[in-house]
Amino acid sequence: MIARLRTVLALSVALWLMVIPVANAYIDPGSTTVVFQAVIAGLAAAGMGLRMFWSRISGFFRRNRSGDVEESSALVGDE
Q1: What is the CA angle 50-55-57, rounded to 5?
Q2: d(CA 52, CA 56)
Q3: Residue 75 CB contacts under 8 Å (≥ 6 apart), including other chains
Q4: pTM of the full predicted structure?
Q5: What distance in Å separates the CA atoms of residue 18 and residue 7, rounded to the nearest whole number?
Q6: In this structure, what are the phi and psi dihedrals at residue 58, rounded to the nearest 5 degrees?
Q7: How confident is the model at residue 66, as a pLDDT?
């Protein structure tokens, strides 16, 4: 019953999207620049996040010869 309802809903949404009139919108060059800047800012933020947490990320995947995870004194709190 639920699968049939999902199918009917998906087909209804698809039909609705096909009959929506054309918007005839205009995208000026300034909009393209804003989108380009947003993409560059997202890549820069992802790069900085990766750089800041690289030691934790690599430490998660790094294992010593006995198969145990290496423990850092900064993470454990004991010196």
Answers
A1: 65
A2: 9
A3: 59
A4: 0.43
A5: 17
A6: -70, -35
A7: 55
Q: What is the DSSP string of 21-51?
A: PP------HHHHHHHHHHHHHHHHHHHHHHH
CA distance linking residue 62 with residue 55, whole number of Å: 10
CB 31 within 8 A of CB 38: no
Query: Tokens 């804003």 identify what position?
Result: 34
Q: Tell me the one-letter amino acid at 17.
A: L
* Measured CA distances, 7 to 14, 15, 17, 19 (Å): 11, 12, 15, 19
pLDDT digit string (tens) for 9-29? 999 999 988 887 777 777 788
56 neighbors 70 (Cβ within 8 angstroms): no
Q: Which two tokens stand for residue 69?
A: 């995870």
Distance CA(23)–CA(55), nearest Å, equals 49
